[in-house]
Amino acid sequence: MRVLVLNGKNEPLTVQERPDLHAGADEAIVRVHAAALNHRDVWIQKGQYAGLKYPIVPGSDGAGVVASAGSAGTAWIGKEVIINPALNWGDSPTHQHPKDFRILGLPDDGTFAEYVKVPVINLVDKPPHLSFEEAAALPLAGVTAYRAVVTRAQLQPGEKILITGIGGGVALFALQYAVALGAQVFVSSGSQDKIDRAVALGASGGANYRDADWGQQLQGLAGSFDVIIDGAAGDGMDELLNLATPGGRVVLYGATRGNPSGLTARRIFWKQLNVLGSTMGTPQDFRSMVAFVGRHGIHPVVDKVFAFTDGEGAFRHMDEAQQFGKIVIKVR
Q1: Coil vs helix vs strand at 132
Q2: Can you tell me whether residue 157 is helix, strand or coil?
Q3: For the whole prediction, is pTM greater than 0.85?
Q4: CATH of the domain at 102
Q5: Residue numbers of the domain that contains 201
Q6: Pairing of strands 27-36, 115-119
């Protein structure tokens, strides 16, 4: 079978041949139809991710058809599925297992391949309204957004929510979920075009975080926010605390801009804010997320689809950070 492989730090993604896969008793072999990128994949290529291992077949997101399975998964053979990339979450609904949890694509070979081996329990039926490309766009970013918005923030109809960094996969899913829940959604981005496109998807407005007064702009639009979903942190974090309504929920799922150089701590305790961390999601979060997408007829936003032989082109497109939505590799 053909796979896309990273052989070392800063090396290009290349097509290679690998032996066929064989399923254990609790495993399934999925014939991948489409896979999608996350920033995690590019960080692995650059050597900027924990637990690096080369060579590695990256890719956490994938959708396809079950080709074969062990004794525990024979009923899945022939079904169209989405793969849950969270492996060994553990028994607690509040947090992943600190040692056993891992994500498909490192250290286990991932979805940038014609076939991938996964535990049977990580298979979920693909909603029929989704194409394979749309379904492949859903897993990692989709469940991260769902846990942040629904499980952790418990967003309610009519509440005002701010979603930062619109255009990225998690932020766009958060926007779509919040609109489906009946919330009033506002966004931030470094691009006015991305803000305008978010408005077309149901946002009420937004601000460009490159503007010095972006916080004041958002205050003018919404006053304050019941829920804030952020994946950047950095020095914008203190302004987010300022924008949160008393008793509000601030959910942090990433820190792409690093640690803040300073925070006004009194904003947290005086406003009685709930600052919540969130990473990926439980198996139940994943199943609930896919059901939610099916129930509301949500179509993931796909920025661009690349051919399997142009996987490196897909990586470079993500590295440019100009995308609006998910970048997908069509495997077959």
Answers
A1: helix
A2: coil
A3: yes
A4: 3.90.180.10
A5: 143-277
A6: antiparallel
Residues 133 and 147 in one domain: no
Strand order in the sheet with 184-189: 205-208, 184-189, 160-163, 225-230, 244-252, 274-277
74 occurs within a structural domain: yes
pLDDT of 327 reads 97
Do 154 and 262 lie in one domain? The reply is yes
78 CB-contact burial (10 Å; exposed 0-12 / middle 13-18 / buried 19+):
exposed
Amino acid at 235: D
Extended beta strands in the chain, E state: 2-5, 14-17, 27-36, 61-69, 80-83, 86-87, 102-103, 115-119, 123-125, 160-163, 184-189, 205-208, 225-230, 244-252, 274-277, 302-307, 326-330
Contacts of 36 (CB under 8 A, 6+ apart): 59, 61, 62, 136, 137, 139, 169, 326, 327, 328, 329
Angle between helices 283-296 and 169-180 (to 10 degrees): 60
Q: Which residues pair with 330 in a beta bridge?
A: 34, 307
The rounded mean pLDDT for the chain is 96
CA angle, residues 276, 277, 279, in degrees to nearest 5: 145
Handedness of CA 184, 189, 194, 195 (dihedral sign): positive
CATH number at residue 147: 3.40.50.720
Q: 54: which DSSP letter? A: S
263: left (phi over 0), alpha (psi -120 to 50) or beta: beta
Phi and psi at residue 264, to the nearest 5°: -85, 95
For residue 98, cis peptide bond before it (omega within 30 degrees of 0): no
- Identity (one letter) of the amino acid at 308? F
The encoded tokens of residue 173 equal: 């899913």
Tens of pLDDT, residue by residue over 239-283, are 999 999 999 999 999 998 999 999 999 999 999 999 999 999 999
What is the spatial distance between Cα 187 and Cα 324, in angstroms, rounded to a whole number? 13
Alpha-carbon span 54 to 216, nearest angstrom = 46
Q: Would you say residue 312 lies in a domain?
A: yes
Nearest to 66 by CA among 135, 25, 124: 124
Hey, which residues does 127 pair with through a beta bridge? none
